Amino acid sequence: MLNHETNQRLCRVGPDDAMGQTMRRYWLPFMSAADLATGDEPRGVELLGERFVAWRDDGGRAGLFHESCLHRGASMRLARAEGDGLRCIYHGWKFAVDGTVIDTPNVADPNFKTRIKGRTFPVREAGGLLWAYLGPREQEPAFPHWPWMDLPDEKRLITRHVEECNFVQVIEGLVDSSHLGLLHMNGLQKSGEVDLGFAQKVNSMQRNLAPRLDVQETDFGFYYAALREIDDAQGRHTEARVAAFVAPCCVLNPNGDIATFVVPLDDGRTSFIHVFWSESLELNRDPLRSRHLEFIGLTPEVLDGFGLTDETLGRADRPNPRNNFHQDREAMRRGESWSGLPGLIEEDVAASVSAGAVRDRAHETLSIADVGITRLYRTLLSCAEAVEQGKLPLGIGRDVDWSRVQGTHGVVRSDDWRELIPARRLAETKETA
Ligand code: FES
Ligand SMILES: [Fe+2]
């Protein structure tokens, strides 16, 4: 439970908000690199309550410009794309992707342009994504190098969708193991019947609806473990599924093959990026790509139909809170569907978005099942506090070994799930604490 003031502090991401300033201290992914080609027109991007323009120059360099022109604020979405830079249509000032001012045709002094710098932001291209850093230049952190970034494109499948609610409540669903066997009951039942590695790995979750939960703080965020007693042909044992929350908005799944980034567009809308990867399978090639997307429910048809694309978000003719997300009460009555919603993603979206654009946490009733939720609040608020006090937030400046930060799962006999965590991670945490 959080009072109104603390809840606002947790959720608001604008440039003057505590959490907004905190998020601006990290590299954030904002779009798939494949969605921005050389020769494309400038593309609007929203991030942390501000508007930007993404564009790739004829040298292949991706850039992120503030939407508002350095001169007198005309929109750079209207700019002319001229190969080596974007030229504002109002007075013709022209900017390269690194902020170099190439031309200011309405100013006679040829040296004027060398004294000013365009409103561009550092951009990196890694792991099939474009990443931006929006914070103070002198505080730019080291870029996190995840092992999946080294895989070839065909072994990495990236999806992006948008949801009409605050980012915190979207992340909550990712550190909330106990909803899986209930909200996603039908999907999990089906997963036992299909021949997909991913599906089978999650199948055990429906066998125990009230997992024991535990968390472990780290120098990048926290590990979150769901422990389920399983009684099967091999006897009685404890299965541990351990996810990693990486500040400020990433969750790594217990199977160690999905990274999710939950990046605020503004206070009430969120971009949700999934990176699925495999060392061995070409996930990004058909037929595997289509099968995978279909099982997860992230096909272009689903995203368009449920209003989860930039173009369809908030449209009245798509499922939304005003029309009860087109919930199928008939199917529920017939016992064919628990939620009345068609798939995993739609279920998660309806659960998150139906709580309101920025969920009111003054009237929630948290239980033992919500250990991950309370830890999420505490972790994010502690990052905001650190930034306010001029200290480094979690994961920044701590020399984190990103190759060891991952979700994991396994059977534990001694009940100490921490032994599953990639070697030495916790010891390192203690040393640097
Ligand atoms: S407002 Fe852009 S050049 Fe004047
Ligand atoms: Fe879910």
- CA-based shape: globular
Structural class: alpha+beta
Q: Which band does the percent of strand residues land in?
A: 15-25%
Unreliable stretches: 424-433
Task: Explain the overall architecture.
- The two termini are 28 Å apart.
- The chain folds into 2 domains: 27-139, Rieske Iron-sulfur Protein; 147-432, no CATH class.
- The model is unreliable at 424-433 (pLDDT under 50).
- The longest helix has 18 residues, at 371-388.
- Strands 12, 13, 14, 15, 16, 17, 18 and 19 form an 8-stranded antiparallel sheet that branches. It has a 4-stranded antiparallel sheet with strand order 2-3-4-9, with no helix packed on it. A 4-stranded antiparallel sheet has the order 5-6-7-8, with no helix packed on it.
- It has helices at 4-11, 18-23, 167-172, 180-183, 185-191, 197-202, 288-296, 300-305, 329-333, 344-353, 371-388, 425-432, and strands at residues 27-32, 43-47, 50-56, 62-66, 80-81, 86-87, 94-95, 101-103, 120-121, 123-126, 129-133, 156-163, 212-217, 221-232, 235-246, 250-252, 258-266, 269-277, 408-412.
- By secondary structure, the chain is of the alpha+beta class.
- The structure holds FE2/S2 (inorganic) cluster and fe (ii) ion.
- The site of fe (ii) ion has 5 residues, from loops.
Overview features:
19 strands; 433 residues; four-stranded antiparallel sheet; Rieske Iron-sulfur Protein; 2 domains; binds FE2/S2 (inorganic) cluster; binds fe (ii) ion; alpha+beta; eight-stranded antiparallel sheet
